[in-house]
Amino acid sequence: MEDKDFLLFIKKVKDYTSIDLSQYKEAQMKRRLTTLRMKKGYTTFASFFEAMAKDKELFYEFLDRMTINVSEFWRNPNRWEVLEQKFLPDMLRKSRKVKCWSAACSTGEEPYTLAMILAELNAQDSVVLATDIDEGALEKAKKAIYLDRSVRDVPAKYLQKYYRQENLTYHIADSLKKSIRFQKQNLLVDTFDTGFDLIVCRNVMIYFTEEAKHLLYHKFANALKPGGILFVGSTEQIFSPGQYGLESAETFFYRKTEV
What we know:
By secondary structure, the protein is an alpha/beta fold. It has helices spanning about 1-15, 25-40, 45-55, 55-65, 75-95, 110-120, 135-145, 155-160, 175, 210-225; strands at about 100-105, 125-130, 145, 165, 170, 180-185, 195-200, 225-230, 245-250, 255. α1 runs parallel beside α3 (about 45-55).
């Protein structure tokens, strides 16, 4: 009975939002959503969905729980240093304006990190697209106000130049906010733009099934221009990247092979 209740919930969510929870790892997803449902006082997923459909705040909390909006600036700093010192300079030697995408950007720490690096490389006219399925997370990203714990890995020169501290919060400089275009997107369903020099999608794929990952790696590869770079998370090594038209360029960086 409990399994039927959850399966019907998955179907209703897909019909209502186009979000397909069956593409996420089931045990992990079910455990997380059961905790939220019980915390809110609902005995079944059927009653939880009915409440969610009427209460926007509850719906956003569901999305937030589902998408694990845990992020910080310069997450895994040594990988960002590789991007800053190797891959972006290589791209900028070919063109002073590069096209970048932060996929599943959560509350914005990742695309702002990228925008700061581009500004320091005098490439602030570059295009930075940032997308996420969670409208609540996108609204937080646009406000660009963060708790001090989010900035613990930010290099001092960036912290001084691109943030304004107010008590325990840090506010992103307006000049940087203008350089990013935020929009809602469902990675599994929506079509992607093309011609990207760089796609950053980190610490997201771990929540998807193998079939969903396979689909997304193909979509990301098709969205990159030849020679473009896909930057993934520290637990998301791509095995046999050649099947997607990619090759390993550095640990957690993959290059689209030239045709």
